[in-house]
Amino acid sequence: MSERLAVKKTYKLYIGGAFPRSESGRSYEITDSRGRFLANAAMASRKDARDAVVAARKAFGAWSAATAYNRGQILYRVAEVMEGRRSQFVDEVASGEGVSRSRAEKVVDEAIDRWVWYAGWSDKIAQVAGSSNPVAGPYFDFSVPEPTGVVAILAPQASSLLGLTSVLAPAVVSGNTAVVLAAEARPLPAITLAEALATSDVPGGVVNLLTGRTAEVAPWLASHMDVNAIDLTGVAGDEEQARTLETEAAENLKRVLRPAATEPDWTSEPGLDRLTYYLETKTVWHPVGV
Amino acid sequence: MAKLEYAPAPESRAIVDIASSYGLFIGGEFVGPVDGTPFKTVNPATEEVLAEVSAAGPADVDNAVAAARRAYDRVWSKLTGRDRGKYLFRIARILQERSRELAVLESIDNGKPIRESRDVDVPLVAAHFFYYAGWADKLAYAGFGPDPKPHGVAGQVIPWNFPLLMLAWKIAPALAAGNTVVLKPAETTPLTALLFAEICQQADLPPGVVNIVTGAGETGRALVEHPDVDKVAFTGSTEVGKQIARSIAGSAKKATLELGGKAANIVFDDAPIDQAVEGIVNGIFFNQGHVCCAGSRLLVQESVSDELMNRLKRRLTTLRVGDPLDKNTDIGAINSAEQLARIRELSEVGEAEGAQRWSPPCELPDRGYWFPPTLFTGVSQAHRIAREEIFGPVLSVLTFRTPAEAVEKANNTPYGLSAGVWTDKGSRILWMAQQLRAGVVWANTFNRFDPTSPFGGYKESGYGREGGRHGLGAYLR
User: Fold this and answer.
1) Low-confidence ranges of chain B (pLDDT < 50)
2) Which of B1, B24, B200, B280 has the fewest CB atoms inside 10 Å of its own CB, making it the most exposed?
């Protein structure tokens, strides 16, 4: 009896909770670290990027208004669903990043645990980043952190799952919605993550995931007037591109998270910088009196 | 209601001593410019030339940044937080001691009523230094990690609407966090910053910790783009804010930008109407409307619109426009001929686009820059006077029917600095506060400020916060 012929997966984009191909009809070849064919990924176009921003904006109202407890449970659910697909993630990380299976297992475990870590922040960050302000007058004055809005994320190029998780989770945990451009040469774990998100009660449009050429798609996101913030991690090491994108982003004063000179080590504890970067502080003055 | 005639009650100018010309304050001394050119600052209420001031050139800015760097490396970064705090306390005390002098000078150079400079601006300035003085030795407890560090040299550019208060918002947290600063006051209002320099001397602040370079946009650009500036803080127009964001792209500079606004002041049908009228007046006519967070769009619920407009118009007839140094004055002079031209232009556009213009009968002085308090009714969201920042005593009035419509209209702007809500219902206040995409929401009040209270915008009103613990964080890394 011959060996069973495997059913191979088609890797598509993830926009507004659906999995469309690129409207451009284009795809590009994804290979493993030794150059062997793995899959064809969709090559997102400007139109796909704009559709993703529209989906993210549409999802922002309900996601940012969801209770922190609810968002925390949903993010924890992402970890649960990832755990169930652990071996698939391990395969994809190992082949895409060219690391050993045991190393890939560590990376996947860390990525799952990172979702758990951020899930817990959902109903704590307001207590850490907010305040009540003792003003000199008869007012109750308080400051609360609120999500910035739609965040465009250029995911790190090397760390295709742990790095991606480390830049995505801090954006969405506080109520932002995201458009993510996956690692150009290693997008497969990102698509699999999108499948986990789609089955984790994350509302459609909260996370939108594009695969394709960073140099082609990133400028559309950087200059998009309905994007409120952009994370440039995916162009770490390319100073010229980072400067160009930051300049474009100034047109509507996007909050710009600049890339480090080289991609950071994602295994260390993240801290709060990324989480607080996509927060606005709102101060409310309310009179006190009888 | 007839306006009561008050006898003039001018505050004496004798308390201030304005020199005929001023140098730049660099390295603890007033020095002549190296490549700068002189310009004049005038009293906007009389067009009288007050003094000649130096517009710092690139070499002057370079010297100021070098002085700040030296002071940072050799002195300020080596001091304990306790000693930095004590310098700031000293400055706060001297500001209080010289408060009347500062208030009078501010009113002369800026045109704002003495009642505001004396009762609002200068007390808040001293309070700001007092507040941040106390943070200097408590940085490890501020929630920014166990050992937060200053950025180094801060380049700060401030506007002309609250010259001394904006200086305090910039310098106090910067110094408390351990940075040294080069500050550029606005072209039309340099005098109180130069008097502040003298206060730094009286406080024995180490030379170079605070440097003041006067000048216009070119000086500001040289400062912001200087390669040895680590942190940029700017308050001003959104247009310049975007230029700054572009100019520092790709650098390691951090920036705080506090920019324009087009705030909605929303009055519901259950609002205490007399209080609301006072709040509307304070929202748009405070400081001649030269306020980035001014309540320049009045959104009034349709059912109370007629009554509210009647009362508001009656109230406007009692506003006194005139001599900024008169203690009875409510509305002073427009800060500059240029700003007056912009206010006039946008008001004419408002009429041309079909809105109805109204001002109370109001005699304006012959000399100086003046604009009467002005209302526009019948304004639609598409009108330029509903979208663009006028930065003057001009209120655009729109109406709404439901809370959802009020939110929709209030948020329909690229800005997001502030908003006001007037209603008797507490749950509605908090619901509105949640829905409004603005950095400051005032409920049943407007234009309140406090050093402990974070202030700053959403969207194109800029980023970063000033005031409170959040404002301290902007000067730490």
Assistant:
1) 1
2) B1
